[in-house]
Fold each of these.
Amino acid sequence: MRIGIIGTGVAGSLLAEALLEAPGVQVAAYERVAAGEHAEAGTGLNIGPNALKALRLHMPARHAALRAASLEWRRWFVDLTDGTRLFDLNLATVAEEPGLRIRWSELYRLLRAPAADRTRHGHALEALEEDAAGRLVPVFRTADGVVRDGAFDLLVGADGRYSRLRALTCGEPPSTLLGVCIWRLLVTDAADCPYDDYGQWFHGNARLLSFRVPGGAVYIAGTFPLPDGDRIPEGMKTAEAQRALYSPKNGPPCPAVAWMLDRIEAQLADIHWARSATAPLLRHDPSGRALFLGDAAQAMVPTLGQGATQAVECGVVAAHVLRRGGTIAEVARLRDERVEFVRQFSLEASDTLIPGVDVVEGTKRKMEADFLAKLRKTYTEVE
Ligand SMILES: Cc1cc2nc3c(=O)[nH]c(=O)nc-3n(C[C@H](O)[C@H](O)[C@H](O)COP(=O)(O)OP(=O)(O)OC[C@H]3O[C@@H](n4cnc5c(N)ncnc54)[C@H](O)[C@@H]3O)c2cc1C
C-alpha cells in the first residue's frame, strides 16, 4: 500500500515515523517548508498529559525525546491581574503524568527528524489528479515548478487548519469565529521573569497566559474579545491599548503582569495576531482516498491547549491502525467521538473569554467536580 502524507507538522511527522518500517507500507511525506526551517512563528506551547500518555504507550522513543527537550507542565493557576488567586490545580490530581512546555521550533525539529529521509521538503500541495486505476496523484508546487510523484492508495491530510487536501477533496470548510483575538509572543531573554509554570491572569474577559519554556525563554499569549466579533482593530495592536486591557482598575498590576506588560511594550513588533476559530470535524473524503488528521480534521479553540495535543493522539492512533492494515473507518471510530468531546469541552472552557460572563464565578466552576471529571477524562482516556 502506498501512503502519501501531506504536511509534517505534529500529526504528519508522528505518522510518517511510525509507518517507516510498517510491513507492506511504502510511505512518502511532503512538506511545504524547506528542510531545517522550523520557524519560531508558533512561539511556545503546552502539550497535555494525554498526548504524553499516547506517546509513552505507542512511541516511547519520541516520548523520551520530547521529555528531554521540554519542561514539565505540572500546575495550572488562574489569578486576576491584581494578583488575586481564583484557581490553583495540581495536574497530578487529574492526570497520570505531567504535560510539557516546549518551543515550537524544537517540537517540529524533534518530530520531523526520524522521517527526514522520507520527506520531500519545499513541496506544497496545489492540486489533485487521478491515475487510470482511480488513485489520487498529488501535484506539488516547488521552487523548480510543478512536480508529481506518482499515485497513492491513501493520501493523509496532516496539512493543518487550512488543509489544501481537505479543500481539494471536500471543499473549503466553514470557519466559526469565537469572537476573540489571540496573540502570542516568545520572550527569549527572560532571566528576570517572576514565575515558572502555566498561569492565566484575567482582567474582565481579557486574559494573559504565560509560562517558561526551555532555553531561558517565556511564552506569552494574550486573548481579548473583539468589539465587532471578527476583525482585529489596528488600534488594539499598540502597547498602550494592550496595557489598558490587562491593567487592574484600582491599583497596580501584580509583579507577573507588570513584567509581561513591559515585555509586550518592548517586543510589540514580534507579536503574532490571530483570531480563535473552529471548523467542523471531518475525518475523510467521501471516496475514502483521503484521511484527515489533526487540525485538518478538527480545528478547535486553543483554550485547553488541546490542538497539538489531539494532533499527537491522531498521529499515534492512525499509525497504530494503518500499520496493521486497518481502515480509515477504524481511525474514525477510534478518534471522532473523543475529538468531539474534547472540542466541546474546550469551547465550554472558553466561557470566561466571552463578554458578559463573570470571570470569578466562571473560574470557580472550574474547581467543581463536573469540570474536573471532564479534565480527567481528557487527560487520561487515551487509546
Ligand atoms: C494561538 C495558538 C496557540 C496554540 N497553543 C496551543 C497549545 O498550547 N497546545 C496545543 O496543544 N495546541 C495549541 N495550538 C494548536 C496547535 O497549534 C495546532 O492544533 C497543531 O499545530 C495542529 O497540528 P497539525 O499536525 O494538525 O498541524 P500543524 O502542526 O499546523 O502542521 C501542518 C503542517 O503542514 C504543512 N503544510 C501546510 N499546507 C501544506 C501544503 N499545501 N502542502 C504541504 N505541506 C503543507 C505546514 O507547513 C505544517 O508543517 C495553538 C494554536 C494557536 C492558533
Amino acid sequence: MSFNQQFDQHGAWRREFALRLKLLSEWLKDHDLLNAAVEERLLRLETQVRSDKVMVAFVAEFSRGKSELINAIFFAGYGRRIMPASAGRTTMCPTELGYDAEVPPCLRLLPIETRLKPQALMEWRAVPEKWTRVDLDVNDPVQLAKALEKVAEVRHVTQNEARALGFWHDEAPQDNPRTDAHGKVEVPRWRHALINIAHPLLKQGLVILDTPGLNAIGAEPELTVSLIPQAHAVVFILAADTGVTKSDLAIWREHLVTDGNDKDARLVVLNKIDTLWDALSTPTQIQAQIDRQRASSADILGLPVTKVIPVSAQKGLVAKVTGDDELLQASCLPALELALAQGVMGQRQKILRSAVTAGMVELRAEAGRVIHIRRRDLSEQMMELRGLRGKNTSVIKHMRSRIEQEHTEFNTSGAKIQAVRSIHLKLLREVFNLLGTPTLKTELAELTRMLKQPGIKLGVKRAYGETFGRLRESLEKARQTSAEIQTMLAESFKQLNSEFGFSLQAPKEPEMLRFLTDLEQIERSHLQYLGVTNILKLAQPDFSDRLVRALATRLRVVYETALGEVELWNKSAASQLDAQLKERRKNFSRRIEAIERIQQAATGLDERIDEIERHENAITALDGKLDELTAQLSDAPPDRPAQAPDTQAAALFRAA
Ligand SMILES: Nc1nc2c(ncn2[C@@H]2O[C@H](COP(=O)(O)OP(=O)(O)OP(=O)(O)O)[C@@H](O)[C@H]2O)c(=O)[nH]1
Ligand SMILES: [Mg+2]
C-alpha cells in the first residue's frame, strides 16, 4: 500500500471513530451516564482523533530535489509541477502545506522583516494581518503553481540590513550570500509560507514542510530547534550526481542526527538516479553505479545501505502525469512511498490507536462506576423490601425511621467530603504553580540574561544545563506532589467507601515522567543546534532573544499538556464524588418513597420487588451495551476499508 492510500485509510478510520464517539456520547446522555469526567474524556478523545496531524519535513541542501519530490509524491494528481522546482536556489523560505477548514484556500506569506521584531514564528501565526495573503484556486493548477512561485521571491538589501535580518555573518564570510555589482545582498523576501489547500491528504491531517537549502534559512532557530524536531518524519535528500558533499553533511549533522529512538522516522533519499541512466551503458552497469553511490552515501552517513532509498523524483513525476508505468517503476518512487507508509504512517497509527484504547478504558471505567452505584442501591433496596415480607405495620414504620436516620447521618458525610476536597485543592494548587507560566517565564528570562553575557560561548552548555536543571527539578516536584495527591485520594476514598458504601476509585495519575523526557529532548536539540556553527551567532544582538523565544513556545506546549492532564485527573476525582453523592441522595428518596407507598398500601410489596428486579435487569443490559459500545471504539482497526461508516455505526446504535 502506498503512503497516500494508507493515509486515506487512516483518515477513514478517524472519521468513523469520530462518528461512533458522537453516538456513544448521545447514548450515554440518554441513559444519564454522562457526568463531568466522562464528558471531559469524550471531548479529549474526540479532539485527539480529529486534530491528529502527521508532519513530514523535507530537508536538504538546495537543488537536491526536495520540492520536486513533494510534487511527485503528493501533487502529481494536478497533472503538473505545483511547487516551484528549478535549477539553483528555488524555495527561499520554509513552506508548510496543510489544511485548515476555517481558512479559505490561500497562500500566506510572512515578510522577512518580521525578523527584526522579537516575536517567535509561532507567535506570528496568531497575527494573521501581518501575513500577505494570496487566494488560491485549487481547480486551476496553472494559477495554483503561479501563485506558489512566490516562495521563491528574493529581495536585495544592504549588507547592514542583511546582517540585521540574520543573513550576513562577519565571522563566517564563506557562508554569506552573494552580493551583486552594487554591493547589495540577495535575501529571501519571505520568512515563512503557509499554504492552505483542500488536497485530500492535507484534509486528513497531513502537513508537509518544504525547507530551503543551507544559508537561505539564515538565523531561524525555530526551524531547527522546534519545527523539524517535531516532525513525525524527516526526509533527507542527496543527489546521485553529487554524492554527499560537505554542505550535505553540515545539514545532516544539524538536523538529522538523533540519538536513538526515532530512527524509523528518518528517511534518506538518493535522488536524481536518472542522471546515471545513460544509453551507452548496459542496465547492469547503470545499476552497479547506482549501488555504488548508494553504498558510499550510506557509509559516509553511517547508515546501513538499505536505509538509503534511490529514486528519481523528476521521472517519477513525469511518469505519474503521463501514466507511464514502466518509467514509474524505473524511478523507484513506489519503493520510497512504501517506506514512508510503513515507517511514518505505521508508527503514527500505532501511537494514536494505543492512546485511543487507553482513553476508552478510562472512559469505560468512569461510566461503569455510575452503573455500579445504581446496581448497588437497587440490591440494597431489594434486601430491605424482602426483609419486610410478612411483617406488620410497626416493623414497616420502624424501617422508615431507620432510613430517615441513615439519611441524616449521611448528610454529615458532606463535611468529610468537603475536608477531602480542600486538601486536594491545596495540593493541586501547588502542582499548578509548579507547572504554570510564571515559573517558566522566570527561568527563561534568566537564561536569556546568561546567554547575553559577553564571552558566553564556552558557558552555553552550562547555562542551558542550569536552566533545564531547575525546570526538571520543578517538574520532579510536581510529580512528587501528584503522587502525594494520589496517595491521599486513595486513602480517603477507601475510608469513604467503607463508611458510606461508595465505590470511589482514585483515577490514574498523569505520567509526569514523559514530560521529563520531553524536556531532555528539547535541551538536546538546542545544544545540538548551537554546537554546530550557530554558537557564533550568540554575539549578534537579539539572537539569544529569538532563540529563547523559540524555546519558550516549545516548552509551553509541554507544560500546557502536563497541566491539561493534571486537570483531567482532578476533574475525574471530583466528579466521582459528585456523582456518588448525587446517586446516594436519589437512593434515599427512592427508598423513602417505596416505604411510603407500601405504608399507604398503594402498591403491594411484591409489585415493588418486581419493579426493582426489572430495574436490575435493565441495568445489567445497560452495562453490557456499554461494554459492547466501548469495545467497538477501541478495537476499530485503522486498516479496515471504510464502508459507509455512517450507516453501519448508526444501525448499531439504533439497536441499543
Ligand atoms: N535529473 C533530475 N533532476 C531532478 C530530479 N529531481 C529534481 N531535479 C531537478 O533539480 C533541480 C532542483 O530541484 P528542486 O526540487 O527545486 O530542489 P530543492 O531541493 O527544492 O531546491 P531548493 O528549493 O533550492 O532548496 C530542478 O531543476 C529539478 O528539476 C531528478 O530526480 N532527476
Ligand atoms: Mg525547493
Amino acid sequence: MLLYCSPRSPFVRKVMIFAHETGLAPRIECVRTVVAADRPHVGLMQENPLSKLPTLLLDDHTAIFDSRVICEYLDTLHDRRKLFPV
Ligand SMILES: N[C@@H](CCC(=O)N[C@@H](CS)C(=O)NCC(=O)O)C(=O)O
C-alpha cells in the first residue's frame, strides 16, 4: 500500500500511529507529497480529486481517503485487538 503523506499533516500522523499500533506500518510505503488549499497537487488528484492528505492507494489502485476511513480500513487488515469498537 502506498500512502500519500506529509509529516506536517496531523491526519497523516494519526494514520501512521494507527499503522504502527496495528503492526501494519511495514506494509505502507509513504510518498512525501506537498499539498496546499490554494495549490492542488495534480498527481495526487489522479487518485483523489479532493487533493487531500492522507490518501491511501491499495495494490489494486483503489484509493481510500479521509483519515478515519483509512484507519477503519486498516483495522480490517490485522489480527490484533481491533481499535474501532464493533
Ligand atoms: N477530514 C480529512 C482532512 C484531511 C486534510 O484536511 N488534510 C490536509 C492536510 S493536513 C490537506 O490535505 N489539505 C490540502 C487541501 O485542503 O487542499 C481527514 O481526516 O483526512
Amino acid sequence: MFRLDGKTALVTGAGSGIGREIALLFAEQGAVVALGDIDEDAAGRVAAEIGATGGQAFPWRLDVTDVESARAAVAAVVERHGRLDILVNNAGIGMVGDLLETAPDDFHRLMAVNVDGVYYCSHAAVAQMLVQDPRGGAIVNLASVAGMVAVARRFAYCTTKGAVISMTQSTAMDYVDQNIRCNCICPGTVETPFVEAYLRKYHAGEIEETRQALHARQPLGRMGRPEEIAPLALYLASDEAAYVTGAQMVIDGGLTAR
Ligand SMILES: NC(=O)c1ccc[n+]([C@@H]2O[C@H](COP(=O)([O-])OP(=O)(O)OC[C@H]3O[C@@H](n4cnc5c(N)ncnc54)[C@H](O)[C@@H]3O)[C@@H](O)[C@H]2O)c1
C-alpha cells in the first residue's frame, strides 16, 4: 500500500520539519525525491540521510518566490528522471500580528513565499504533467487550519493559507479531466523548527511556558509531530488516493472540532 516506486517527486522546503519528513517517507516508499530548499545545505543533509538508507534523492537550491527558480527545479527533475509525478508545495513561513500590526513588507514577504511560491511551483509542475506520457500527477499543498479558522494575531499567515486552500480547489477542478489531482493538508500546530523559531522570536523570555500553552491548545493535549503529517502526504500522493481531489485534510489534534 502507498508505494511510490517509479515515481518522481519534488518536495519544496524539504530541508526542515514537515518537508524533511515527507521527503524521507517518499524515498522510503520508493520515489526519487528532489529536495528543493532555499537552504541548500539543509537539503544536502536530508539527501545524505536518504542516501544512507538506500533511497534516491538529490538536493536542489530552490527559491519558491522566484518563478525562474521554480521552473528550473521542475526542469531539473525532468532532465534527470524523465517526468514529474508528484509536487509537494511545503515551503512556507509565518509571522505574528493582527491587521494593524502587520507591516506591508511583512505581508508581502509572506505572500511571496506562501502564495506566489505555490503558484509558481504548481504552474511549472502542471505544465510538465500535461505533456508527459502517461499524462498526469498529484499535487499536495501544505495549507493550515489557519486557512480555515482565524488564529489570533496571524492576519497575514491566515490570509496566505486561505489562498492555498483556494488554489488547491481551483487547480483540482481545472485539471480534473487531465489526471492531475490536487489536495491540501491543514495541520494544526506541529513541533518543527518553524515553531522553535516562533518561540525564540516572539517569546524569548518564556519559551517553556509558551511551549506548554501551544501543547494545551489542542484538545488532544499536545502539538503534532512532523512524522504524523507525512503519512497523509504519502496517501494523497499515492495511487490509492485516485478518488481524492480538491480536498482539505485536517490533522490538528481536534483544534477545529471544538
Ligand atoms: N509547523 C507548524 O505548526 C505548521 C502548521 C500548519 C502548517 N504548516 C505549514 O507546513 C509547511 C512546513 O512547515 P514547517 O513547520 O516544516 O517549517 P520549517 O520552518 O521547519 O521548514 C520550512 C522549510 O522551507 C524552506 N523555505 C523557506 N523559504 C523558502 C523559499 N523561499 N524557497 C524554498 N524553500 C524555502 C526553509 O529553508 C525550511 O527548510 C509550511 O508551509 C507551514 O506553513 C506548519
